Amino acid sequence: MTSIALCTINNTARPIARLCQVSRAAHGTADFHSYSTLRKRAFLPGGKWSFIRAGTRRMSHASPGRISLGRYGKGVFLAAGAAAVTGVLTAGVSHFQRAEMATKVSTVEEEEGDIRERCKSFMSLPVTDIRVLEQRKDAMSARMEMLIMETQAAFCKALEEVDGGAFKVDRWSRKEGGGGISCVMQDGKVYEKAGVNVSVVFGNLTEEAAKQMRSRGKVLKGKDGKLPFCAMGVSSVIHPKNPHIPTVHFNYRYFEIEEADGTKQWWFGGGTDLTPVYVDLEDATHFHKTLKKACDKHHPKYYPDFKKWCDNYFYIRHRAETRGIGGIFFDDLDSPNQEEAFNFVKSCAKTVVPCYLPIVYKHLNDSFTPEQKDWQQVRRGRYVEFNLVYDRGVKFGLATPGSRIESILMSLPLTARWEYMHEPTKGSKEAEMLEVLRNPKEWI
Amino acid sequence: MTSIALCTINNTARPIARLCQVSRAAHGTADFHSYSTLRKRAFLPGGKWSFIRAGTRRMSHASPGRISLGRYGKGVFLAAGAAAVTGVLTAGVSHFQRAEMATKVSTVEEEEGDIRERCKSFMSLPVTDIRVLEQRKDAMSARMEMLIMETQAAFCKALEEVDGGAFKVDRWSRKEGGGGISCVMQDGKVYEKAGVNVSVVFGNLTEEAAKQMRSRGKVLKGKDGKLPFCAMGVSSVIHPKNPHIPTVHFNYRYFEIEEADGTKQWWFGGGTDLTPVYVDLEDATHFHKTLKKACDKHHPKYYPDFKKWCDNYFYIRHRAETRGIGGIFFDDLDSPNQEEAFNFVKSCAKTVVPCYLPIVYKHLNDSFTPEQKDWQQVRRGRYVEFNLVYDRGVKFGLATPGSRIESILMSLPLTARWEYMHEPTKGSKEAEMLEVLRNPKEWI
């Protein structure tokens, strides 16, 4: 939940369900029904997923050895990430096909595509006016907005396909600039609560606030103390009903700040992590292997370093246990260059569905006992503790006047439980889970 | 939950159920069964309560007009309170009798009593060895420990009488000095979760830590930078099952620090507040009137000032609503003198049962719908948000390595719920509650 805060600082949050219906007049784009049709068309039959090559342009990745990884291993974890320059927009439409678990994941290929056309597959129109996105299609802010919109759509559609229910789409705007799109499915067939948020906000930061938003606390010089900024991200938390289906969280974000002399500071942040209620070695291995594959294409140190960072970040200190079995987490990524960093983030974003959906399908019909449900609820309580006590994104959001609280706290489960002195029976499956949370493992 | 933190800083928390069984050998006192018998004997038949005059000594109270109240109205709210000197131990055994709601509350009278005899009515032996309490019976620390133990016992017994269930009594010790007694009843007939904590801890504070523990941030000079301190308190949160029975919280605490030159700084803190799920004007009036009566005996400004402080303190800023309908809250109370301050705290502590129990009995058999239960669960979620995000005692406790987490988080409900974009129907009973939480009322 680290960057749900990106959809905050919103004094005039105006949720509009299915905005596409509202804004089509202004933009001349298709209405909600045509989006739905397109969404249906985007799916091929079958229950397991991977992204396939749909275009021809091969992205260039970071060169191993060129990046210094030392600084992000020092335990400085801040919530918001990345600042922008311009680039070449190459993100394309994603398609899905049958795939076996832990195979053929995320060959990050894309096709150049018409922005207006690509927008039709989104859950809502983008936050930025389509004409502006078209005009600025080479700017990193536009490319990242298209990526987060696509990530939201791909994930929501994959989840809807499993559940049979539909996401409620709330669109909100921010007085000072920007807004967001919150997609929530509550009390569905499969999900207790599923939320997928996009936010794109801009405005001016004070020098002090800008310093605090960056892990390294770099001093930035503003014009009259003010720094124009742009922040955007996609973030999601899925809490399934069945205790054998784990909770997943991911978040990918981009931040840019313009200094007085016109210099642009930018950085990316993000991560994907899994919170099961019971240990399933196959699930854990699949999840981490899929992430590693995405990371390895960009730098051999990304997976081990970001895996460790994830274990450190999602740590419930007062319980001396991690929130889940981890995944990857990174922040303040501005190397080796903007193009490579963006490509890495894109690989990660496109890995969300193949990381998680096979696990959902695998456990869809698992039976469970009331005791297993109770244990899930106790773990949900721990999830709440982490999110309210430690998560920097949530803390930043709650402390910011005018935040859109419903989007920030969308990450909380529908239900949770706190039992006094709860301790699993020795040798039980619950104790096995706790052991893993107390002593994070290497899964691959 | 402001001072559950007092039972923290505990590196070697060792819960021992019904310590009385464990420690009787050391102290030569009665075992658990004799405590139970005594507890039963302490009750008179009937369901509504007030304290009656059981002794002859009249306590002297603070003189109205002598105390400057301005400073505690400035929004400086810290968790732990009060530091000690010596005094005369006069706290007596409490008895209960039938009483009509909002009548004859808290005639704070006591009898001089044998410490060993009084201890028999407690939920467990006191934290401090009885022989030490006997030797130091005139010291404020001993008097306060007897008061908090008595308050715990009186409240637990009153709650057990309603529920029919029994509290689980966990006793824990702190390596550096002191310990606590946590009484919890979970999933009872009436209560979803009921917790009543006592803690008595001592040791050395750094000058910086000592400064932070006091609202006014007074600089204290320690010997070699260290300040011997003693902190104790009783705190409780009761979450009933029936949505028509409100949640109650109270906490009374005492703090003392010894400076290098032997000067003792001391102060008290505390409060009692109610969190209903539905507005019941009669309940709210009874609750506040009972508190006001206790306050008025000591200073005419106590109730209005501490009522306002309570509304300000239990404010969920990100929701722009209070946690409940308030009550009283104060901290850093060291005037007009120690005896008067203690008498005020004693009045408050003895008002807990007559404040709350009549309300419990009134709604004991109220019927409720699943929708009303859901609304209760949503409000429970808000309770969790306040306690984890804002409560200074909880924050202090969670941030302190080695805290006894189970005692700190005992305040969390057994179950809670977070619904996305939950908004009660206009004109509904739920909307009426929300309106009161958004605009705190004067109840009397």
UniProtKB/TrEMBL annotation, chains A, B:
**Entry's Gene Ontology molecular function annotations:** coproporphyrinogen oxidase activity
Among the entry's GO cellular component annotations, what is one? cytoplasm
Task: Give the pathway.
Answer: Porphyrin-containing compound metabolism; protoporphyrin-IX biosynthesis; protoporphyrinogen-IX from coproporphyrinogen-III (O2 route): step 1/1
Membrane-traversing stretches: 76-96
Q: Does the keyword Ribonucleoprotein apply?
A: no
- GO BP of this protein: protoporphyrinogen IX biosynthetic process
PROSITE patterns under this entry? Answer: COPROGEN_OXIDASE
Output the Pfam families linked to this UniProt entry.
Answer: Coprogen_oxidas
Keyword entries, A-Z: Heme biosynthesis, Membrane, Oxidoreductase, Porphyrin biosynthesis, Transmembrane, Transmembrane helix
Enzymatic reactions: coproporphyrinogen III + O2 + 2 H(+) = protoporphyrinogen IX + 2 CO2 + 2 H2O
Task: Give the family per the record.
Answer: Belongs to the aerobic coproporphyrinogen-III oxidase family.
Give the EC number(s) listed in the UniProt record. 1.3.3.3
Record carries keyword Glycosyltransferase: no
Could you give the subunit structure recorded for this chain? Answer: Homodimer.
Name the UniProt record assigns to this protein: Oxygen-dependent coproporphyrinogen-III oxidase, mitochondrial
Q: Which domain of life is it from?
A: Eukaryota
SUPFAM superfamilies cross-referenced by the UniProt entry: Coproporphyrinogen III oxidase
Task: Tell me the leader sequence span.
Answer: none
